[in-house]
Amino acid sequence: MRSLWLLLIPCLSLSLAPFVQTEKGLEFPRYDGNDRVIDINDKNYKKAMKKYSILCLLYHKPIPDGKELQKQHQMTEMVLELAAQVMEEKEIGFGMVDSHEDVKVAKKLGLVEEGSVYVFKGDRVIEFDGLLSADTLVEFLLDLLEEPVEVIGNTLELRAFDRMEEDIRLIGYFKNDESEYYHEFKEAAEQFQPYIRFFATFEKSVAKELTLKMNEVDFYEPFMEEPVTVPDRPNSEEEIVAFVTEHRRPTLRKLRAEDMFETWEDDLEGIHVVAFAEEEDPDGYEFLELLKEVARDNTHHPGLSIIWIDPDDFPLLIPYWEKTFHVDLFKPQIGVVNVTDADSIWLEIDEQDLPTAQELEDWIEDVLSGKVNTEDDDDDNDDDDEDDDDKDDKNPINRFCFSRI
Amino acid sequence: MRSLWLLLIPCLSLSLAPFVQTEKGLEFPRYDGNDRVIDINDKNYKKAMKKYSILCLLYHKPIPDGKELQKQHQMTEMVLELAAQVMEEKEIGFGMVDSHEDVKVAKKLGLVEEGSVYVFKGDRVIEFDGLLSADTLVEFLLDLLEEPVEVIGNTLELRAFDRMEEDIRLIGYFKNDESEYYHEFKEAAEQFQPYIRFFATFEKSVAKELTLKMNEVDFYEPFMEEPVTVPDRPNSEEEIVAFVTEHRRPTLRKLRAEDMFETWEDDLEGIHVVAFAEEEDPDGYEFLELLKEVARDNTHHPGLSIIWIDPDDFPLLIPYWEKTFHVDLFKPQIGVVNVTDADSIWLEIDEQDLPTAQELEDWIEDVLSGKVNTEDDDDDNDDDDEDDDDKDDKNPINRFCFSRI
User: Fold this and answer.
1) CB pairs under 8 A between A and B
2) Which residues form a coiled coil (chains A, B) (predicted)?
């Protein structure tokens, strides 16, 4: 089949004859072949900024000499082209900035991390360091188009808020939408949109349920039952921003496609405590509840940040993780991963008899004290090779998700 | 950029240099260029059946003459190749069957719908009529590898079961895993895996919470509070299969990538009642709760089957739906869609003041009586064009999800 690849790409602008369906209403967009992504340079960047309400710039390393690497680079352009096509009517523009050719522009715009997409919206710059797939990027941008603060109008809507335990979220109680403090809150919300969710209510009944006083703002860490109140109400934008920035890294966080690489880079001394648990699976759910309990008991431990991965969210990574980490992801797992070489060590778990919260806590203590560490086992070298971005063709892997171009 | 496409595909077996990351552990698989998908014919299909524990066959129309259509066909092969590579270690094989060239094989294997993937596992054939993307297909296959029946061991695990209100699910109470009735239940479960979930418990305490008698099986329709008990316990495999088959189409169902086209094809007299509601959004959540209430009150109405779409699950379709249906998907919507031309009509909804359950019910009554129908408005022609699988290049759309190859 390899020989056919060369013919492949132009088809993107044509319909898939083998799968023409008689029913209408579920047709997925496909790239129409029109070039929308701008090659940003010193001359055109200001115009691009003016033209679009939102401009997304991929900051990338110079296009390498190797033909293949060039082609891979073009795969990425294609993701942006499809996103650009889909978002065209929303007045969202896309461009690419070469980290060598366009040093000046990059400096002016404050682009730093190669491989990240920088999103310019008004006077804000938002870094997207998530999965570079069209649907993840489009979902991210659609979230950016929503109001920075969602208003909770009644106690039924409050239940929607209660269900979002995976997310960092804030909620404030204000007199009405003219309130100056609501305005400050809204300004703060824009600083974190869409990564951190901000809610407000103007209803006494809702505030009562949340035990919120007028102009008070509560901060909810993921999976914690009790919120922390931002001190010294009423709060200015700066106070809220400072508080969120300080409390941002949670004790337990779920890996999300939209910021998965940013999360992975935020390791603690080169390691991550990683828990795999399928929330839809009874064992996975039970294990997750345990994990939440441990996180709640240890939320004040600055050195503890557990990453929960629901394998269902990343099906294509499951076989890779199972091979790399030597774990069976059909059952819950918790381990320590060294992010420099993906070397790892995992807690022995009996599916029929999950560890108690105490046993889990003791194991985590051993991890934090270094008693449990990834160097204890040493037969991982062959796997480490597979993790390297080298020319190992047996198990080629990639940060870029080809599977979801 | 178009001119670059021709160079594009061979890169799939190479690493993405611009995005080499220093951290390891999140590398996505990319196609290594090895040919794994078998071109199935009269001579090799038996061997393929023997070789793999699970064999996935895409039943497709003959490869057309047009170069572009051929290329589109190859895009599909690429999806299968990536899935085949990722699932290689799980002993899952992939092949393609041409509906004209391989009539005999297709007949022998019972392949009917062009565009579907038929999955052969033991003596079972499962049709996959969902989104043809590598991750959706791989997730589907991983679900097939799990046990057909999940055992609920305690009341905490039962909470995981309670949370799955979106899914059709059954749960039975049996003496132990040697019970002949459990065996019958398991056999029935295999007939519906992975579309319908089967659970069992051997614990009295769990059975008590579910008010299940020994050897009793309860059937849970999505979003319904009370289950229906399969009559005449203890039940044989045949009885359970017959019951599930009869009760399979729910009053309210959520559109899922793994069977979205099958669901869409299951229209009632050419129309669907479609509700868009973002569960993560307070308004969307409130509207969804309303919808569930209406569904519960009308679950015995044979002519009623509402499809709930959470726009968050299909970001790339949002702009397409907004354009095709003339709706704003940032707020909840409910309407009638004619599946032959995607013509539609939508209920006027005031976000600040959502309709009452009664108003929603009245509107649905009008839909079922034909009083509300898609022919009432007639300025949709320009949009209908966009829905056709013709050569309209302005808004090319596709059943095949290029965005998630």
Assistant:
1) 447
2) none
